[in-house]
Amino acid sequence: MIAAIILVRLDSKRFPHKALAKLGGVRLIESIIQTLLEDKFFIPIIATTNRLVDEPLVEVANFFNIDIFRGDLENISRRVIDCLKVHNIKYFARINGDSPFIRLDLLKEGAAILEKNNYDFVTNLYPRSFPYGMSVEIFKSDFFIESMDKISDPRYMENITSYFYDNISKFKYKNISMENGKNYQNIRLTVDTTDDLDLIQRMINLDKFIFKRDVEEIVSIYEKVNNKLK
Question: β-pairing, 91-96 with 137-140?
């Protein structure tokens, strides 16, 4: 089983309930789920907290007939570990609930690499060459559980994959990079604030099929919109 674990909660201080905000008429969390369900390669699972504020995410999961796992608020690594164990997941992709520009092709490429090779994980973040919001992080579940079960540092309980990058020499990994040496790491395509939401909505206004475009086309539209806003 290859799961796509969507990490999301609804009480972000900078932008409360952002996962339910609409982009192009579709709520952010729903856009992410729709992309993941396109060809059934990944099994999406929402991983949120067990608090009342996150109850609306249960309705979203029920609407799409996908699983939702509810766990610890602050110890996100424990939330993921418990989710992996409950659902008996062999491999998983970490998906951020504020990133609508999911590259399903890259995620599938990463999963194929992990299944066919003796790597602990596949990433496109070390070094990063894709824009923020186009992350690929796919782990062997047993490796992730064994590694994170030993960690007590609070930094790694919230930023659940940073431990691996901080100790990269200890692990076997494969990095996916942009072709032809291109580097878009300074471009942000995540929704952290209402300004981010507005920028991406403006991108959608220029091209309603933008989430289906290749990386260079998306970057080009981003730069057009961003230059107009300056």
Answer: antiparallel
**Residue 66 within any structural domain of the chain:** yes
Residue 14 belongs to domain spanning = 2-185
Q: Is residue 86 part of a domain?
A: yes
Tokens 């079960």 belong to 149
Say how far apart CA 25 and CA 35 lie, in whole Å. Answer: 15
pLDDT in tens, 97-113: 999 999 999 999 999 99
Q: Is residue 210 part of a domain?
A: no
Distances (CA, A) of 169 to 88, 94, 227: 28, 21, 39
CATH of the domain at 106: 3.90.550.10
Note the pLDDT tens digit of each residue in 131-155.
Answer: 999 999 999 999 999 999 989 899 9
Residue with tokens 């490429």: 109
What residue has token string 């709520």? Answer: 27
Q: Say if 174 falls within a structural domain.
A: yes
Cβ atoms 80, 57 nearer than 8 A: no
Contacts of 157 (CB under 8 A, 6+ apart): 74, 75, 76, 77, 78, 151
Whole-model pTM: value is: 0.96
Report how many domains make up the chain.
Answer: 1
